[in-house]
Input
Amino acid sequence: MTDLHKQSLLSSLGLVHVWSLEKPNTMTKAVNTSLLAFSCLFFVVLSLFLSVAEPQRQSLNGKWRLSNTSGSVCLPAEVPGCVHSALQLQGFIQDPYFRFNDAVYRWIALENWTYTTTFTVSAVLRAKQKVLLIFEGVDTVAFISLNGITIGETDNMFCEYDFSVRDQLKVGDNELRVDFRSPVYYAAERRKAHPYRVPPDCPPDVQRGECHVNFIRKEQSSFSWDWGPSFPTTGLWRGVRLEAFDLLHVVQVSPVPLYNLSSSAWSVQVDLLVDAVQATRSHVTLSVPELESEQSFPLELLSGKTKNSFVLHINASRQVKLWWPRGYGDQSAYSLLIRAHQDGVVFLNTESRVYFRTVELVQEAIVGSPGLSFYFRINGKPIFLKGSNWIPAHAFQDQISSAVLKNLLQSAVDANMNALRVWGGGVYEQDLFYEICDQLGIMVWQDLMFACAMYPTEDQFIHTVREEVLQQVRRLKSHPSVIIWSGNNENEAALATDWFNIPASQKPMYVKDYVTLYVDNIKKLVEEEDQSRPFLVSSPTNGAESEQEGWVAANPYDPHYGDVHFYSYSLDCWDWKTFPRARFASEYGFQSWPSFSTLQPVSRRDDWSYDSSFSAHRQHHEDGNQQMLRQAAIHFNLPNSTDPFKLFTDTLYITQVMQAQCVKTQTEFYRRSRSEIVEGKGHTMGALYWQLNDIWQAPSWSSIEFGGKWKLLHYFAQSFFAAVLPVGFEDDDTMLIYVVSDVLEDLKLRAVVTVYSWSDLNPVCTLRSNLHPVSGGSAVPVFKQLVAALLAGCGRCTRLTCLLMFHLEDEGGIQHGPTNHHYMCSPKDARGLQKANITAMVQEDDSGFSVTLRSSSVAPFVWLDVGNIPGRFTSNGFLMVSANRTVGFHAWRPTSAAELSNALTVTSLMDVYGAG
Ligand code: BMA
Output
C-alpha cells in the first residue's frame, strides 16, 4: 500500500489527519510469511490509528425522558420530537387534532418541561481534542446542563446550537438535561419587560390563541393563526449529537454560482465553515471535475470557527449546463470536491453539489405605465411565477414525514406550479424540502420568519435574530430553488396601513424599529452572506419604491410597484374587475372546507353540521363560515337538503366549488395580464394563491387538505396553471379569449369556441377564430366578439340558456392546452340545467384505475370522491358536456376496483339543490 493509497483510503473515509507509517521494506519471496504478518500488523496499526484519528460522531437521538416541573407527568419521549407528540404517543393525551382538543390541551404549553437522557461516552471519543454537543433545533427557551453543569441556554427555535463539552464529558455514563420554559409565559414576560407595546398583543379571539408570539423566536403560527390551532410546542425538534475530533470539523460548505455578464464567465463562490482545534495554515483545492475546473487556495484556520471564502473560476471552454425552473429545462447539477492538504497529506475531503443559474428581480420603468416592473429573470429569461404559498405541514414538526413532504411538493408540480412561497409565519423548512424543490424545479420565494406583527429591537432580540439569519442563509443559499429572500410577511403593510391603531405620534418609533430590524440588520447581513439572489424587505412591498419612501411606503399594496396581497370576500369573485391588476400577486385566495373524509377522524356525529360548535371552533377567520356561503350564494343555490348529513356534506362541496371558481377567475386574470398595460397597470408576472397546504383539518384557503387530498381548487389549478391556456372573459359586452403562453417557442393558434345549451349534451354551434401568432412568454387576444352577436349567431341561445367551451388549436388542428369554459350567467339562473343522472364504473387495467362516467345531461362541477382512500384523480370537479368521460385514479396505497367502487360518490351541482 503506497502513501497515496493510504491517503485515498483515509480521504475516502472522510478522515482528516496527518499521519505516517513506515514503508515496508523491499520484499523477497523468502519473506512471504513476514509479508502476511506485516499486512496483518499494518491493518492492526491502521485500525488502531483509525480509531484514534477518526473524527467521531455520536447520535443522541432516540428515547429520552420527559417530565413537567411538578413531576406529575413523566414519560419517555422521542428526540427529535416535542412534548405534544410524546404525550400522545404514550397515551397521556388523545389526538390533539380531535374536536376541541386544542383548547383542552392548552395546559401543555403553560408548563415547564424537562428532557433528560443518559448516554455512554467511550474512552476513544473522550480522548479527542475537541467535542461539540450539537443541537440542530431547540424549541425554544431552555437551559442545558451536562452532568449537572450548566453549559448554555437557548432562545431561538431557528438556530442550531453547539457547545464545546469535552471537559464536562466523562468516560462512561453522562447525563444531559434540557430545561424548557413555557413559551407562553416566556413571551408574556418579555413583553412585560419591554418598555412599550409591540403589537399585536394577542391574536383575534376567533383564533383561540396565545399572546405575544412576536417576543419569542419560534414558529409564529404555533400560537394560532387564521387557519391553524394554537399548539405552542416545546421540545428538541431536530437531532442532537456529539462531534469529536482532533483537528477540525466541517460545519458547512455553501457553494453559490456567480455569473460575470461582461466576461460571460461562471465562477463558484464557496464558503467553508470549519471548527478547528488549533490555528492552521494550509491549502485547499476546489474542483468541479465534470467542468475540468480546479484551483488551489490558501486556507487559514483559527482556533474555533472560521469561515473561508473562495472563488473557483469555471473553465470557460466548458459548456455549463444550467439549472432551470420546471417547464424551462433540466435541473442540472455538478459535484464540487473540496480537499485540503498539508505537506502532501489530505486532511479535509468533502463534496457538495453546485447548480448554475442566475436570478434577477427586475424593477425598471415600463413604457406607458407609472411605477416599476416587478418580475424574475432566471438565466436571462423572464419567468411568470405560478404557484401558491406554503405553510407548516403540521403543528408538530416531528410528525412531518419525508413522504408527506414529497407528496405535497409533487402535488404542487402536478398542478403545473413552478413556484412556492415559504411564508414567514412558519419555519425555515427542513433540508429535504429544498432538495426536492431543487430536483423538481420549484422556485422558492423564501420569507424570513416574521409575520403580521411589529417586533422588538432590543439587543438580545437583534442578537438572536442575527444568528438565526446567518445560519439559515448559510444553510439554504446553495439551493438553486431559492430565488429570493424576503424579510417578513406583511409587516410593512401592517405599519403603513395601521393595522394596530398606533397613534400617529408614535409611528416614527415603530418605523425606526422596522428599519433597524429588517434593513440595518437583516438586509445587510443577508446581502453580505449571499450575492447570488435578491433580497426584498417585505411582502407585499413596493420594492424599490418602498426604499425611496424610507422602507415603509404610503401604500405597499400599490399595483404599480412590487408585489400585492389582495383579499376580498364580499365582492363578486367572478368579476375580474374587482381584482387589482398587480405587477405580481403573491397572495390572494378564498376559504373552503375540507371534505368529509378528512374531517371524520377528528369529529363526532353531532359535529357534522355547518352550524355545529365544532364547525365554529375549527373556523379561525372572523365570520369565515358565513362569508363562504355569501360568496357561494352569488352564483349558486345553497344546499337545501332536509337530510342534515347530506346538507352538511353538500355545504362542504359548495364551499369548494366557490373557492375553485373564484381562484380560477382571479388567477386567469393575472395570467392574461402578463403582456398588457391597461390604465397604467399590468405586466403581471406572478400568481401565487394563498395557500397550498393545511396544518390541520379545518376550513382554510388551502387547495390541498390535511392528509394530502386535493380539493376542487387543486384540480382547477392543474388547468389554470397550464403552460398554454385559453382564458375567456367578458369586457362590457364583448366576449374575449386570450392565449396565455409560458412556453419559450412562438406558436400560431386559433380559438375554437363551442356553444352548448344547458339543457342539451349536443353542441349548438362552433366558432373558430383566425390563426394568431403567439410569441413565447406572452398573453394575446385571439377571439373577440360582441356577446349579443355571438349568441344571436348561434341560433337559439341566450345568456341564460347557453355556455361556452373553448380550446386552442394550431394549423394542423392539434389542441394546445386544456379545454376551458365560460358561463354566461350564474348557474343558479341557468335555464334548462337539470339534475344529471351520472353513473360510474371503476376498472383496473395495466395503466391503473379508471372511472368511466355516463351522464344524462350537462353537469357542472362533477366531483368524484373515494372517501379516505388516498390518491388523486387525473381530473375532477369538471364540467361535463358529453355523455361519457373517463378519468384515471392514482392510488397512493394498494387498493382494488371493488374498494374504489364501494367508496366512490359522484356529486354535481344540481345534486345539492332541490328536493330531498
Ligand atoms: C395573508 C397571510 C396569512 C393569512 C392569510 C389569510 O395575510 O399572510 O397571514 O393566513 O392572509 O388571511
The first helix runs from residue 3 to 12.
